[in-house]
Design goal:
The protein contains 13 helices and no strands. The chain is an all-alpha fold. Helix 5 runs antiparallel to helix 7.
Amino acid sequence: MYEQLLQLDAIRLNFGDNGSLVLSIVQAFIMFGVALGIKPLHFKTAFQHPKAVVTGFCSQVLLLPAVTFLGIWLFGSYLTVTVALGAILVACCPGGNVSNFISSISRGNIELSVSLTAISTVTAVVITPLNFSFWGNLYISHSDLVRELHIPISQVFHTLLFIIGLPLVLGILCSTKLPGLTRRIAKPIQRISLAVFMGMVVIAFAANFDFFIKYIKYILVIVLVHNGLAFATGYSAAAAVGLNMRDRRTITIETGIQNSGLALMLIFNPAIFPSGIQTGGMAFIAAWWGVWHIISGFMLSTWWNYGRKLKYNKLNKLRAERYAN
């Protein structure tokens, strides 16, 4: 497996001549769509219900990167440097905007979900570069394979400022100052941005189909385990502080649904990872995360709803038996 992943590292994915620019524009558009749903009320919620919000925030920005690093440290002999860095980068990104929808169909706490997405996204301009620089460079310093790579925190910050910061400010201003217009355009923009991003992922996979077929069996296992750890981290953190089931589901989803599109955008930024640096493993990890976390999120919501239905039917059956007797 390790030898196969080494070959993957050296691959330069075919993303088109202007792929990086297009991805950056799409990511900014997605952030603008997310910001349209952010209102000052969501930050007020953080002060009214601090326990759930603080737990969810810490689970996502502190525990997930730490658990990811621990997993890489334990199983690092099976991973290459760029595959490991890809997992770290995804773990350091804010929550994905699809998490709100998955929380809703999972019967989670929607207000908490939106609040966590809003806070993690707004703070990502600072926290993502700090987290990635800390954990990434900590991993590199313990690796015998790559010593010349240094993650430039200033470049990551500069990129996120324009890709996240500016669209967020514009979106929140639009939501606050033009509520009527926001109500009309919010849903279409969010749906279009998600469809465009998924379309770009599909096109990228199609353009690299041979690589995908050859290496997906390795990447699939890595992402599946990593995503499972993310869900488990969120649920464990929420359970440890005694939150109710609705909040546990929400924090589980917020921790397991990551903005992998942002990770891809950073990977393809030559100012952060110059052309001489191998990023094939990182790109594959981030791209497959973008597909898999949606699938796993729907699977998890289905499992929860199925369990709830079984419990509901069992209670009805017991009531019927009591009534009959």
